[in-house]
């Protein structure tokens, strides 16, 4: 029997651009934590309100929420030593960042997640 031995939660908030002289991007707003509580809360919430699928990238199915301007994905990975990693991803969008690509953000997050679990 295996257990979830590692939890990775990513949240990206595409910010409202308030001062054009000091531009901000989503790269400045990537939050990362390893809270089991957050991961389980997201799975529970998404199970009941799964949104609709918009694309798949590298085996990650990305869904758009029906009730908020957000995108989400989750993934499990088998690790050496009979462990498992659980990763959750949530991306908040706003009207001021329409030129931001959810796919570009996911590519960045997936690469970071892959790097993290490669060393386990």
Topology, pairings included?
Elements: E1 3-13, E2 30-33, H1 36-48, E3 52-57, E4 60-64, E5 70-79, E6 83-92, H2 102-118
Parallel strand pairs: 1-6
Antiparallel strand pairs: 1-2, 3-4, 4-5, 5-6
Protein name: Cytoplasmic protein
N-to-C span = 19 Å
- Identify the overall geometry: globular
What amount of the residues lies in strands? 35-45%
Q: How would you state the average pLDDT, rounded?
A: 87
Number of domains: 1
Biggest sheet statistics: 6 strands, mixed
Sequence of strands across the biggest β-sheet: 2-1-6-5-4-3
**What low-confidence regions span 5 or more consecutive residues with pLDDT below 50?**
none
Order of helices and strands: EEHEEEEH
Structural class: alpha+beta
Approximately how much helix is present in the residues? 25-40%
Tally the helices: 2
**How many β strands by DSSP?**
6
Radius of gyration: 15 Å
Organism: Shewanella sediminis (strain HAW-EB3)
Protein name: Cytoplasmic protein
Describe it:
The structure is a single chain. By secondary structure, the chain is of the alpha+beta class. The chain has helices spanning 36-48, 102-118; strands spanning 3-13, 30-33, 52-57, 60-64, 70-79, 83-92. A six-stranded mixed beta sheet has the order 2-1-6-5-4-3, sandwiched between helices. The chain starts with a strand and ends with a helix. The mean pLDDT is 87.
């Amino acid at each position: 029997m295996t257990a979830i031995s590692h939890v990775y939660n990513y949240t990206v908030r595409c910010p409202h651009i308030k001062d054009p002289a000091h531009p901000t991007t989503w790269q400045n707003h990537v939050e990362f934590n390893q809270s089991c509580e957050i991961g389980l809360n997201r799975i529970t919430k998404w199970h009941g309100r799964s949104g609709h699928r918009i694309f798949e990238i590298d085996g990650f199915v990305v869904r758009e929420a029906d009730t908020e301007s957000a995108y989400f994905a989750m993934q499990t990975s088998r690790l050496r030593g009979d462990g498992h990693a659980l990763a959750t991803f949530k991306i908040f969008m706003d009207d001021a960042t329409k030129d931001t690509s959810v796919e570009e953000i996911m590519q960045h997050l997936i690469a970071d997640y892959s790097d993290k679990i490669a060393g386990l």
